[in-house]
Amino acid sequence: MKFRLKRCPVCDSIPFYSRYLEWTRDGAILGRDKARTRVVFLEVEEIHNQLNGISEKIGLSIDRIVYNAEKEVGKRFISTLVPEIITRLPRTRLTRPAVAQRLLGRYIISPYIAQLGMGLTTMLDYRPGKMHVFSLMNPYSVPVLAGDGAGIFEYLERIGVEATWEVDSSGNPTVTLRKSSERPGVEERLAYERASYLPGNAELNICPVCQVPREVSETFDFDPAQGIVKNRFSGCREVVMPTQSFSAIFRELERELGDEIPAIIVDLERRYVRDNLSERGTILGRPDVLSLLMDFTWRGIGNPVSAIRGKGGTDITIENPFNPSLVAGKVAGLYEAWTGKPVRFNWTEEMPGRLKVSLML
Ligand SMILES: [Zn+2]
């Protein structure tokens, strides 16, 4: 796949990031699409740690749950690019030419996925209204991408779709989407209205030319030709993921598997962050608790606003956390990596958009 790689002359970031994403001073990264899709930078291994960890904990694969939940995210994504009216036109060769769908896939959807570091998708076979087969190279998660693909196909074709996936002889996963019913599935519609965020005044070192924070262009190597975003300092692969994926997947997991899921998520995240950061040894010299969270704003994780020391410990407040359970686990894990000691903690959402993590010291 060829990409025009005219990079920012000042900070070297790729044009995609300034064209499609906006860093707010509230700790969020928002898409410039009409739904203002929120995204977050996370390590790919961190996502695997969550999904595999939950599977191991409950003793069964959650791939189908993840796939089903992500379908709605895929629909929402494509609906911001393609007005619904187009999908309502009668399915004729004139109004719904297959060539237009191919172009949409090749020039809009695939580059979008690649530049977010999600991997590469290649269309192998496409039969309008019936079937769509695509292969994945370097996918950050097969069930998530299969869910995205199924949601997109359902939305464009207005039919129910089922997906299967397998690894082909060259080792790459292939996803097959097949028509399963005349009507698209009725998953819960994700909120379309613009989320409101608590206003913040986080300092961001924004590039004056492309409006992307310097931390982002200094930290990452963008390789859209491979569909990979790599952190230069840690060597880890990262991905820019819609935060809606987490809400959809975790909501579905809770519905299917019960309310112990948030506690599992928090614990998996705490251990991942603690063990990986302890190994890298990058935060040992930080001066205080808030300085442990200094990458939160430019990663879109949330806006850390205070760390207040009281009698029993320290209360840390993060506004606009992208996902309260994951962020609470991160804070505890960072603290444990910094001090080298286990910490007891609890967390509450004081109000929508304000997370308080209380470390008991
Ligand atoms: Zn720039």
Which class best fits the helix and strand makeup? Answer: alpha+beta
Nearest-integer average pLDDT: 89
Summed up, the helix count is 11
Q: Are there runs of 5+ residues with pLDDT below 50, and where?
A: none
CA-based gyration radius? 21 Å
Largest sheet composition: 6 strands, antiparallel
The overall number of domains is: 2
H/E element sequence = HEEEHHHHEEHEEHEEEHHHEEHEE
Report the portion of residues in β strands. 15-25%
What compounds sit in this structure? zinc ion
Q: How many distinct beta strands? A: 14
* Major sheet: arrangement of strands: 1-2-3-10-9-8
Distance between the termini: 53 Å
Using the alpha-carbon principal axes, give the shape.
globular
Helix content: 25-40%
Q: What would you call the quaternary organization?
A: single chain
Write structural notes for this entry.
This protein is α+β, with helices and mostly antiparallel strands and 361 residues long. The chain has 2 domains: 8-258, no CATH class; 259-360, Muramoyl-pentapeptide Carboxypeptidase, domain 2 (2-Layer Sandwich). The chain is built from 11 helices and 14 strands. A 6-stranded antiparallel β-sheet has the order 1-2-3-10-9-8. A 4-stranded antiparallel β-sheet has the order 4-5-7-6. A hairpin with a 5-residue loop joins strand 1 and strand 2. The longest helix has 20 residues, at 261-280. The model has no long low-confidence stretch (mean pLDDT 89). It binds zinc ion. The site of zinc ion (ZN) has 8 residues, from loops.
